[in-house]
Specification:
By secondary structure, this protein is α+β, with helices and mostly antiparallel strands. It folds into 3 domains: about 190 residues, Histidine kinase-like ATPase, C-terminal domain (Heat Shock Protein 90, 2-Layer Sandwich), CATH 3.30.565.10; about 120 residues, Ribosomal Protein S5, domain 2 (2-Layer Sandwich); about 170 residues, MutL, C-terminal domain, regulatory subdomain (Ribosomal Protein S8, Chain: A, domain 1, 2-Layer Sandwich). Helices cover about 35% and strands about 25% of the residues. It contains 22 helices and 26 strands. It has an 8-stranded mixed sheet with strand order 5-4-3-6-2-1-7-8, with helices on one face. Strand 3 and strand 4 form a beta hairpin. The longest helix has 24 residues. The chain is globular and about 90 Å long.
């Protein structure tokens, strides 16, 4: 027998609709608190018992509900937010469908009491399982109070899927935290089993809410950012590496104050962090995107937790650029020192060198500047000793402090069989190495340097360069530093269309899937710009003839596959830094490795090159290139101070 079509009753259809809108107690809190926000409430209190399953009570001081509309508010699709379909594309409120109250009342015992300012009394309504128990006048403050008891009491199947009371309370706390962040001008209070767990003060300052929600540590380790375009503005805070975590729990995205989850914006933020964050960590961030409503569609998910944008590329680029610039400026400022302090420190260093003397096997005072530069040290047999102050313009005849004490310690102070006394030393034959040291030393007045000129102390474990400036000790990872230098050099070459390629002895022939082949054809110009020479070799087949020279000897097949995946994940976005991120990481193949012994000259050259790149403080993979220890920190470690 064929089944006939039945029209579901109101009670059944409401319960089914409730399954989409009301997933668990936190869904009830979200919908009702958003209603309070839409009513322009300035104080919202949420009280929950047993994770919200037993009781959820929300009190606000908003505009309230007109007495004639109290019963109507619980009817399906009843709303004050819109009046026709065109309004859906110009929504400025949290709610608009008119499903929440009807759905909540269908699966609980609900009591609502509300009053508007024009009336001296309010109205109260009680609904159990979708059926009205009573409607009556009641004394009430201006605003609305709603209590939802015994959630899912008539839907036992849904009740079984709820987690423990503590877990459900955690979900409620999380969503209320997000709503508080989006509305710093509103005071939020949360009482869990009569214990206050959240209290914001409605000062209108986002930093105050962040401190209340996340605590002092996070509030002190965040960086503000801001960006604007013709259709949207983005602003918010991003955390530094100190508060990065192994999960995305501390990430919040708001579009026109609506808390959403959006992979596009998340990818934009995390890609902006790729050059700065520690590997395998996710950034803390709070992103607010303000955009004209007509450029979005929020009617794509029952819980309104997803948003579609008319121009994904524009949103991605706006978010990425704003955060990337903020991080760059933050790192630059954290490693810079005031010009006045740097001048004082340099003066102290000069005064200090006047008091120090080093013994050389020749009398430099007897030479002119030209004689000094042309003298062949290796041919001298003189053992006459003259005290010469190192690193001074008067005796070394150079204005750029080319000869460093550490250089002499390593290269000049070598034993000489020609001198009768073992204390007498000879100097190296070639002075070009000494002169070349000065080519990378730029006067401190140059404002393009991202951190002060450092004095090299030595090398530790053939991996880390030790340097000092003022009362600070610096450790530089030589591999990460050189990798970043190559990375930025390559980026600059790409921007200037000046990438040098190397021809492969044997072209690499690859057969691609139809999807990958389409991505390659769409981005063929990109591959050409970064130094590849790739030709179509047949159906879905390509021939790679040239690759960028800076990559050394790459695994061409894996490199090309990674590039395709990177472009595929990026989608329609075309932000330059993200598109070439995979290529940039390959720069490490030709960088100085750990355990490579470097001379003082090489270390000094590496540090000076690092000072003048755009982002010197992290490698392309997000690891730090340089770490600073203050004298105060070291003295605390040695218990010299408290």
């Amino acid at each position: 027998m064929k089944k006939r079509i039945n029209v579901l009753g109101i009670e059944t259809s409401n319960k089914i609709a409730a399954g989409e809108v009301v997933e668990r107690p936190y869904s009830v809190v979200k919908e009702l608190v958003e209603n309070s926000i839409d009513s322009h409430a300035k104080n919202i209190t949420v009280e929950i018992i047993e994770g919200g399953q037993k009781s959820i009570k929300i009190i606000d001081d908003g505009e309230g509900i007109h007495p004639d509309d109290v019963e109507k508010a619980f009817m399906p699709h009843a709303t004050s937010k819109i009046s026709n379909i065109d309004d859906v594309y110009n929504i400025n409120t949290m709610g608009f469908r008119g499903e929440a109250l009807a759905s909540i009342a269908a699966v609980s015992n609900t009591v609502l009491k509300s009053r508007i300012e024009e009336f001296d009394y309010g109205k109260e309504i009680s609904i159990s399982g979708g059926k009205t128990d009573y409607i009556r006048e009641a004394g009430s403050n201006v605003g609305t109070t709603i209590e939802v008891r015994d959630l899912f009491y008539n839907v036992p199947a849904r009740l079984k899927f709820l987690k423990s009371s503590s877990r459900e309370a955690a979900y409620i706390s999380d969503i209320l935290n997000r709503l508080a962040l989006a509305n710093p001008e509103v005071s939020f209070k949360l009482l869990n089993n009569n214990k206050k767990t959240l209290n914001t003060y409605g000062t209108g300052k986002l930093l105050d809410v962040i401190r209340s929600v996340y605590g002092k540590t996070i509030a002190e380790n965040i960086i503000a950012f801001e960006g604007h375009s013709d259709i949207a503005s983005v602003h918010g805070y991003i955390g530094n590496s100190e508060i990065s975590r192994g999960s995305r729990n501390n990430q919040s995205i708001f579009v026109n104050k609506r808390y959403i989850k959006n992979k596009l914006i998340t990818a934009a933020v995390e890609n902006a962090f790729k050059s700065f964050l520690t590997v395998n960590k996710f950034p803390f961030f709070i992103v607010f995107l303000d955009i004209f409503p007509e450029y979005t569609d929020i009617n794509v998910h029952p819980t309104k937790s997803e948003v579609k944008f008319r121009d994904d590329r524009e949103i991605f680029k706006l978010t990425f650029n704003a955060i990337h610039e903020a991080l760059r400026n933050y790192l630059k400022d954290s490693f810079s020192i005031p010009v006045e302090e740097e001048s004082i420190a340099l003066k102290k260093e000069e005064d200090k060198t006047e008091m120090q003397r080093i013994q050389l096997p020749i009398d430099l005072n007897s030479f002119s500047e030209s004689d000094y530069k042309s003298v062949e040290y290796g041919n001298t047999k003189s053992c006459e000793i003259t005290n010469v102050p190192y690193n001074t313009a008067e005796d070394i005849h150079t204005n750029e402090n080319l000869v460093q004490k550490d250089y002499f310690n390593k290269h000049i102070l070598k034993e000489s069989a020609d001198c009768p006394n073992e204390e007498y030393k000879t100097v190296p034959e070639d002075t070009k190495e000494i002169e070349s040291a000065g080519k990378h030393i730029i006067p401190s007045e140059d404002k393009t340097a991202k951190f002060p000129s450092l004095k090299v102390i030595g090398q530790f474990h053939s991996t880390y360069i030790l340097a000092e400036f003022m009362d600070n000790l610096y450790l530089i990872d030589q591999h990460a530093a050189h990798e970043k230098i190559l990375f930025e050099k390559y980026k600059k070459s790409i921007k200037e269309n000046n990438v040098i390629s190397q021809v492969l002895m044997t072209p690499m022939v690859m057969e691609l899937s139809p999807e990958d082949f389409d991505i390659f054809k769409e981005n063929n110009e990109t591959f050409t710009k970064v130094g590849f020479d790739i030709n179509v070799f047949g159906d879905n087949t390509i021939s790679i003839r040239e690759v960028p020279l800076i990559l050394g000897k790459p695994d061409v097949k894996n490199l090309f596959t990674n590039l395709l995946e990177n472009l595929k994940n990026l989608g329609s976005g075309e932000t330059w830094e993200v598109k070439y991120n995979t290529i940039a990481k390959r720069a490490c193949k030709s960088a100085v490795k750990a355990n490579d012994n470097l001379s003082i000259i090489e270390m000094k050259s590496l540090i000076e090159d690092l000072r003048y790149i755009d982002d010197p403080f992290t490698c392309p993979h997000g690891r730090p290139t340089i770490i600073k220890f203050t004298l105060n920190e070291l003295e605390k470690k040695f218990k010299r101070i408290q």
